[in-house]
């Protein structure tokens, strides 16, 4: 499995924030009730994919000690039943820490990963994990108070108590949002379903012209997590035409996010 996922200042910080990173080894931090511990990373495949991406002209970092959060572990645990069921190559895409790369680079990243996956001569499952429209209370570095800015720079490995306080703050914000007592940006089902339609069409170059600010204006700061979807579909499309077999969508205020699930397969 090649899993494209985001991070929420649990594994990647402003002390060194790459736009993209492939993990040749990775460990779950165990946030939001997810299991903590190592992922069964296919290190050889990870290094091979990194070389393919770099050869394609897309700058990507590689980590031999990646830390991943629920952005990676929830799909592994909830869809596969365990975080260690299948060999995996985690591909981090920065979706929250400004400045963000142009979205066209996400498509090129995905296409390079797709070509690299084809060269592995293995059966490969591609997965993208991230929310659709949502604007949760994730701090922005610009204008952050000194204590918050320091956590965004060097907040690695918090204590269990610190993590619990942080997660409780988010849960409280979700409750207020679901009750209609929040000034957070509302969900945008129309934007979400339009994006899913573009992904299903296979014409991903249409996305290249979408400016980063437009994502935020239409669907909230964390709508940039759809970069993982774009990368996964671009990787699939690198092998040729595909078709979407399953598509489900619901705007879920209690999760403070537009929720979607799609499956697709290559036709070549």
TrEMBL record:
Q: Which UniProt keywords apply?
A: Dioxygenase, Oxidoreductase
The EC number(s) given in the record are: 1.13.11.16
Q: Which Gene3D superfamilies match?
A: LigB-like
Output the Gene Ontology terms for molecular function: 3-carboxyethylcatechol 2,3-dioxygenase activity; ferrous iron binding
Q: Which SUPFAM superfamilies match?
A: LigB-like
The Extradiol ring-cleavage dioxygenase class III enzyme subunit B domain, residue ranges: 2-260
Note the InterPro entries from the entry.
Answer: Xdiol_dOase_suB
Class of the enzyme per the UniProt entry, highest EC level: oxidoreductase
The molecule here is called 2,3-dihydroxyphenylpropionate/2, 3-dihydroxicinnamic acid 1,2-dioxygenase
Question: Which species?
Answer: Pseudonocardia autotrophica
């Amino acid at each position: 499995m090649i899993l494209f996922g985001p991070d929420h200042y649990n594994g990647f910080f402003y002390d060194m924030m790459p736009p993209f990173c492939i993990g040749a080894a990775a460990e779950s931090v165990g946030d939001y009730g997810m299991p903590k511990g190592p992922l069964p990373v296919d290190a050889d495949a990870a290094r091979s994919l990194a070389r393919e991406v770099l050869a394609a002209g897309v700058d990507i970092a590689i980590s031999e000690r990646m830390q991943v959060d629920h952005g990676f572990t929830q799909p592994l645990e909830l869809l596969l039943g365990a975080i260690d069921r299948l060999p995996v190559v985690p591909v981090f895409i920065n979706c929250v820490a400004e400045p963000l790369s142009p979205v066209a680079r996400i498509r090129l990243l995905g296409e390079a990963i797709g070509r690299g996956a084809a060269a592995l001569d293995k059966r490969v499952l591609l997965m993208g994990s991230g929310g659709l429209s949502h604007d949760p209370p994730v701090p922005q570095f610009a204008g952050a108070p000194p204590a918050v800015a320091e956590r965004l720079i060097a907040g690695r490995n918090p204590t269990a108590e610190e993590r619990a306080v942080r997660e409780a703050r988010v849960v409280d914000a979700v409750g207020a949002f679901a009750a209609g007592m929040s000034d957070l940006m509302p969900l945008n089902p129309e934007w979400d379903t339009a994006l899913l339609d573009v992904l299903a069409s296979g014409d991903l170059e249409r996305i290249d012209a979408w400016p980063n600010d437009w994502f935020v204006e239409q669907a909230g700061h964390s709508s940039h997590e759809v970069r993982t979807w774009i990368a996964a579909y671009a990787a699939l499309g690198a092998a040729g035409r595909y078709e979407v077999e399953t598509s489900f969508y619901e705007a879920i205020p209690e999760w403070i996010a537009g929720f979607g699930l799609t499956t697709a397969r290559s036709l070549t």
